[in-house]
Amino acid sequence: MSATLSAPRFTEPGVFGRVAVLLGGSGSEREVSLQSGQGVLDALRSRGVDAHAVDGVPALAQAILAGKFDRVFNILHGGDGENGVVQGLLEAFGIPCTGSGVLGSALTMDKIRTKQVWMSEGLPTPRFARLAPGADLHAAAASLGYPVFVKPSCEGSSVGVFRVISEADLQPAVEFAAGYAGELLMEQMVRGDELTVGIIGDIALPSIRIVPAGEWYDYHAKYIADDTQYLCPGMSPEDEAEVGALALAAFRAAGCSGWGRVDVMRDIERGLQLIEVNTAPGMTSHSLVPKAAAQIGMDYAALCWRVLEATIPVEVEAR
Questions:
Q1: Disulfide engineering: 173 pairs with which of 162, 195, 247, 249, CB 3.0-4.6 Å?
Q2: Active site residue 287
Q3: Which residues bind Mg(2+) 2 per the record (predicted)?
Q4: What share of the chain is helix, strand, coil (3-state, %, to 5)?
């Protein structure tokens, strides 16, 4: 679908009741989540929403048991914020939450299983190897062929990601793997454009082509550097239609809903290749979904409103 959104369904902030903005937590993405959450909190309050920050899942559970909130804007990046734990907790208590449900959240938090689903659906994604703890990274890289990326299967924000051009570059990843308890994904490196596509409901926002000043889009380029270029739309009109359709297909195949972001690479030989899905995308000053929304005239506060609005089913509105 083209990136054309209908008018908001609601105009009065009172329809949302008391809203918890879930942020922070104890995971590796805490600092980014705090930044995103503060932005969302300020934006919702600027529109009159009765929004309050809640730091982490234990605090949220206590607040829900005390009956303090009517719905949750989940901006807890990684960990229990995106792996289905928060979604299951809230579903059990009948509290609406932004973003995907238990299935889509749990699946896409695991990059390996997401790629397995995409492959079963015939969707394009780079060849990869699943590395259990203790696996031989040298043998896996030799089998896939250099260059490769090595990354934790269940982390985000470029945490623990290694770019390995040749065997001589592999040692840092080997050392990381030795102290990491979870599975690692080793993936063939895609040479070409790095793209991301924001999703709101059934709409694919204009793609963003990411051009870092350095060799690749690492944590520094994402959250610290001011010289990373974000070109939006990132492709020609014809290619925009193709990447938007692919992103929506990938999002739906993984059981996702509400809003999110699909990361895609355009390989110079193999064309578009799906990388991963983020079900609680960043909402910092450097984040990509707000940039794409702005391209179609939706400012930050309006984006937050639209995401929160999706927690109210259409059938409730029609009563």
A1: 162
A2: yes
A3: 276, 278
A4: 40, 20, 40
Per-residue buried b or exposed e for 226-264, using 16+ beta carbons within 10 Å of the residue's own CB: eebebebbbbeeebbeebbebbbbbbebbbbbbbbbbbb
In contact, 146 and 167? CB cutoff 8 Å:
yes
Q: Domains in the chain, start-ordered, CATH in brackets?
A: 13-98+311-318 (3.40.50.20), 108-124+191-295 (3.30.470.20), 128-188 (3.30.1490.20)
Q: How does pLDDT run across 145-159, given as a tens digit for each residue?
A: 999 999 999 876 566
DSSP 26: S
List the catalytic residue out of 36, 157, 207, 257.
157
- Say how many C-beta atoms besides its own lie within 10 A of residue 268's C-beta: 9
278 is in an annotated binding site: yes
Catalytic residue among 29, 155, 187, 240: 29
Q: What is the pTM of this model?
A: 0.89
